[in-house]
Specification:
Length: 105
Amino acid sequence: MARPPVVPAEKKVRIVLSVLAGEVSIAEAARRERVSETSIGKCKAEFLEAGKTALTAGRSGPTSREAQLEAEVDDLTRALGEAAVELRVWKKSAEGRLGPSRTSR
């Protein structure tokens, strides 16, 4: 028994899109490409499932890059807050030793 022909992914996409658009039936596409109707049907099902998965994943939450940037913003915000507290402490310490500064209230 001969092996079925290997169909490149780009060609599978074109076949599935033509079937979904109603340009050809599964049976006609199978005859043209010399593959089984089952193969075309499986390609169509995989194509639709992958599309559904991609659309669902797109709405599920931030991408890894967005999550990385959000974490970086959190770290920088925390560091800025700590620096502001240190600055206040240093100013108060300096006021205690040198007297009030012109900019302090």
